[in-house]
């Protein structure tokens, strides 16, 4: 019995920087620069890019140019361009923007839903039916992005039955994919294993993804645990930039799983994923420089086979 | 099929700070302070502590007080006190110091062995027989600590057959346990799975451990992969302090798996391990303050359920 026996044949990497990353920044990244960065990310081999969020501009001012970004980027045939939509109004903008897919947000925690969207979870879930109908009428795929699937900033640990009830409900709505999100970055490999296993048991063959934050440093371990039960789609962000939850001081460099660290692990494991490690590594350095982020991932710090061996060799001379 | 099906019943945590950590520092930590720190670590519930190295004082001057440290620490019945021995002279000192166990060093890489010990691997392996004989005559357990089991700073990736040949050889010498060490911190979960699986296939029931460095950020993922094939002993270091290999600039905060991050993961996974998380967290903060290390682990940065929820709650007021 080992981890490698039933790994998925192909892993899909979803780049979150343009939404989860730019959303976290205090400053507005100019539209031109967003477009340049997205165009660069389109050439790395990632499967999908979440390009922005069709949220009300007052709610997330740093992403107020979502419609413009969608218009200006260069679309590649082999990349899925998706956007976050928090409600039906957002979905209407997504149709207008001609994205390939939407990440339709629902949060498992009642308290979080109330505080962030000023609605009940049932209201959000009822609207999911309309979002799916509108999206499918325009050949747009729908992924239900399930925030607080494990921990909530207000309620603490979320009961697994709550998470599974929401999975059941969005599957009923007819979504194409379901993503569990560790909004807080506090989930562990057992919770990951148990919740995905239960979801797959209830819905065999369901297309499931995992959105990881790395607050507790377990995001690569959680990735491995999820792969072992058949999850084949992972959200990550170049430089790890991302996250909407207030974290302790000193965690400013910690957000989503850094894409470059994820891709390094998958590449070295010999798993198919389609991303060019050198390109994603270079893109991470570029983004880190542009946004003055520092070395927020192990790859950025130099923790790769190539750079470590280079360092040793240069020290020998 | 999932990760959790065959996890070991009990994980043994080995604290490496007093050897791998203090060895890495440029400055000599005064003997009194070493003893205080080891005594504090003895009260955290860790199974073993590697208290020092019986290496020639000129080779590792920061550990030149190994004999004194062994004398002055307070021994607890439920803690195994072990020391590194690089050769038979070191083993003689270990007998004198009355340690419970030795970590008898052998490096898989010929080049590394030559450069670090100025001997051939066969010479080191031949001496292993004498070390085991002397140790067992004094009821001291012997673990073969196999450096460069995956990557070597000079040779790059080490062939798995080389690693397995050394496992065979130390088992022949009669060692009680075998530990594979990622000296470079560059191994990935597939390599971990494959090498341990092969070793267990060749030597069913062999007591095996894993010594991880976190250069590539995969040490918790590697821990999980190793646990899934039955490895139940893990070396780690409070604050992650440790490591003898030259790493790229910017990796000064990266060394062994931080014990507090490992223990957080094991605790939350519900695996038995005996370590008190609060005590190890407090010890990590204490060591970080004493040695001015900064926040070199996710736990030290505040990435725990408790601290994140506290932070959110205080932000709400």
Automatic annotation (TrEMBL), chains A, B:
Its EC number is 4.1.3.4. Keywords: Lyase, Metal-binding. InterPro entries: Aldolase_TIM (IPR013785), HMGL (IPR043594), PYR_CT (IPR000891). Signal peptide: none annotated. One of its GO terms (biological process) is ketone body biosynthetic process. GO terms for molecular function: hydroxymethylglutaryl-CoA lyase activity; metal ion binding. Residues 11-281 form the Pyruvate carboxyltransferase domain. Pfam families: HMGL-like (PF00682). Belongs to the HMG-CoA lyase family. This is Hydroxymethylglutaryl-CoA lyase. The lineage of its organism: Archaea, Methanobacteriati, Methanobacteriota, Stenosarchaea group, Halobacteria.
């Amino acid at each position: 019995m080992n981890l490698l026996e039933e790994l998925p044949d192909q892993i899909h990497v979803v780049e979150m920087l343009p939404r989860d990353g730019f959303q976290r920044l205090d400053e507005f990244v100019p539209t031109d620069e967003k477009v340049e960065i997205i165009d660069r990310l389109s050439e790395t081999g990632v499967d999908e890019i979440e390009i922005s969020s069709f949220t009300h501009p007052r709610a997330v001012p740093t992403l107020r140019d979502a419609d413009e970004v969608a218009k200006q980027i260069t679309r590649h045939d082999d990349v899925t361009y998706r956007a976050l939509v928090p409600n039906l109004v957002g979905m209407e903008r997504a149709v207008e923007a001609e994205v390939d897919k939407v990440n339709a947000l629902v949060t498992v925690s009642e308290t979080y839903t109330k505080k962030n969207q000023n609605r009940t979870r049932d209201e959000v879930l009822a609207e999911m039916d309309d979002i799916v109908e509108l999206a499918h009428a325009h050949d747009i795929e729908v992924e239900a992005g399930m925030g607080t699937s494990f921990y909530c900033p207000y309620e603490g640990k979320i009961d697994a039955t709550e998470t599974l009830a929401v999975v059941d409900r969005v599957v009923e709505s007819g979504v194409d994919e379901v993503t569990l999100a560790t909004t807080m970055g506090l989930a562990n490999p057992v919770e990951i294993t148990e919740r995905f296993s239960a979801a797959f048991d209830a819905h065999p063959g369901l297309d499931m993804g995992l959105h990881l934050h790395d607050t507790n440093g377990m995001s690569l371990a959680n990735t491995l645990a999820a792969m072992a039960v058949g999850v084949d789609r992972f959200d990550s962000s170049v430089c790890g930039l991302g996250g909407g939850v207030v974290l302790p001081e000193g965690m400013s460099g910690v957000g989503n799983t850094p894409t470059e660290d994820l891709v390094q692990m998958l590449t070295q494991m010999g798993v198919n994923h389609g991303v060019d490690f050198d390109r994603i590594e270079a893109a991470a350095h570029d983004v880190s420089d542009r946004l003055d982020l520092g070395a927020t991932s192990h790859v950025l710090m130099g923790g790769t086979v190539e750079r470590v061996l280079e360092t040793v060799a240069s020290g020998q001379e």
